[in-house]
């Protein structure tokens, strides 16, 4: 991290000593001023309820922020699409890129696809705050597809995540009265079977699904841990590295794996689960274009009908490229990999897909 | 009080002072005297002609209706009826006034009758004046944006820090005004200079109540302040200014299709392809690697190079919606202004219509003299504190501007009528 120019720090502390504190993490005066404003609003609001003095509270908040403590943990929430999701230490904070991808994914569904099942079953693996499943449940009914009901289950290995996701679901059900959230539940389970698992105390997913009596699922969404150990040490920001749960960022795996493979540990397992439960569409978040290509190659080995890579910004379709027979949409970092079975190609308006990819590869 | 055996001197002095007529005024601006009201404003002949033409049209329409009823004609006749009524009232008032004035000016009038006539004159004059005002009001077409909510943008102008402080004062003034007049107002954007709370570099206030644009559109322009700033050490009076823009605010989605957001011919239409959306992103890896807090959104309308930047909310989606709303408002206002400018050029050959655009100073707030003068209506009110707190005097001055605006629009109308 480059050193902040002392002139900048001096200017900031002259304006407001607290600004200089926040600047240590923000590195930029305008965003520091904004964060300070949000923190002050929060402190004032908080003290209206508790009848305390907001100034000491604001100082404590700014001091924590100066050490890199995530703003979202301090304020207790983050905006994800148009939902406000509660955040707590120990659970990964939702990222705006994920929201973009989920929104775009929902928009792909064809309202005129009459082979969509009347009851769409969705699995959200490694759910964390529950943000992906909550946003999906919120947006999907607006797409006006022939689907009558949604059944969604969010899965996480961490008990605090499952608890927080459930809390988020209740809060949104109370506030916004999103009726589709009623058929949404969260369970604690390990994606890996007991013999491969690092945490033997948590029951495995397939076992839990059997116990639920629901082994068939249509859509699998996931934002699994995908950072390799080297990436964690080198590329993550201080606030992420020091304060967010490593469990949600770096896959736990046996030693002796190559660095990139270590980051990819979850993807083959998720694709395998998708096979077992008869999944027809899979959306996976990835770190960058390299990982996206590796995951897409894996998916092709699992015989998926179509595979697509989405980048961060998906506003226009003008910048579509092909890598081999895989279509790459948007600009920015590679962010998600979409795979679908033949049965689902009309759901996502990708009927003519196999032909075009065939032409591109030829 | 006079039966009491003893009165304190101070009370005695105060009583005599109250009895002793008006206090002397030392200010340069003269208060309106009674004499100025006795000469009534004449009605413009072109306007009267138009009113008579409308009246004639109404008569023919009513005849048509008597023969065979048709809802469309009935509706049109109903719209014209207000003008006809106003014209009738005006004619009655005008007749009374002319009769009285001929009586007064006639040397052969009986002195007793003359006294009666001059007693009646003021009331007849006011009746004529109000009839004239109603008639002109009914003739002037309604502003196309009048029924919309509005956005008030405030930016400091010349004068450095003092201008920023004054801009913050204006923001407070409009917030208080909205609160006092039951207008729902919400702060969309407030950027402080150097993090000092009382100095703003830009503020946008959204007044959500429908019709707010009609109430507040007269506020657009440069507001000038003359006072000893808080930042001044030697006690000198400074003159600085702040610019206020009032834009109509359109609903986010046009459900009824009335505005034609989708219709390329409409003022409100913006081709999404012509707008570049910039979402501020941290450089380097995204996703799980960083947790950025930036939610700023910038929209650039490429053909006009209009830039809208919103970063107030933590929610990027909310910022984006706000930015679109603001962009739509600015573009629509620009288009309307351009059209008005064109019309104005056409009319300049007929009469020199003075229009105060947003670049001209419209109002002066003078702290030392405790006065606020509007340069368009020429009205001066006193009591800075009351006005800055959105008090009744502010409404008074705003009302005078509304009347002035209506008069200008009427002049435009006359210009177009006589230019035909």
UniProtKB/TrEMBL annotation, chain A:
Matching Gene3D superfamilies: Vaccinia Virus protein VP39 (3.40.50.150)
UniProt xrefs under InterPro entries: DNA_methylase_N6_adenine_CS, HemK-like, Methyltranfer_dom, N5-glutamine_MTase, SAM-dependent_MTases_sf
GO molecular function: nucleic acid binding; protein methyltransferase activity
Record-given protein name: S-adenosyl-L-methionine-dependent methyltransferase
SUPFAM superfamilies: S-adenosyl-L-methionine-dependent methyltransferases
A GO biological process held by the record: methylation
PANTHER family: HEMK METHYLTRANSFERASE, MTRF1L RELEASE FACTOR GLUTAMINE METHYLTRANSFERASE
Keywords assigned by UniProt, alphabetized: Methyltransferase, S-adenosyl-L-methionine, Transferase
Entry GO terms, CC: mitochondrion
UniProt domain Methyltransferase: residue ranges: 120-171
Domain of life: Eukaryota
Residues forming coiled coils: none
TrEMBL record, chain B:
An MF annotation (GO) of this entry: translation release factor activity
GO BP terms, alphabetized: mitochondrial translation
Pfam families with a match to the protein in the record: PCRF (PF03462), RF-1 (PF00472)
UniProt superkingdom: Eukaryota
Cross-referenced PROSITE patterns: RF_PROK_I
Keywords linked to the UniProt accession: Methylation, Protein biosynthesis
GO cellular component annotations of the record: mitochondrion
Start and end residues of each Prokaryotic-type class I peptide chain release factors domain: 281-297
InterPro entries given in the database record: PCRF, Pep_chain_release_fac_I, Pep_chain_release_fac_I_sf, Prokaryotic/Mito_RF
PANTHER family noted in UniProt: LD18447P
Stated family: Belongs to the prokaryotic/mitochondrial release factor family.
Protein name, per record: Release factor
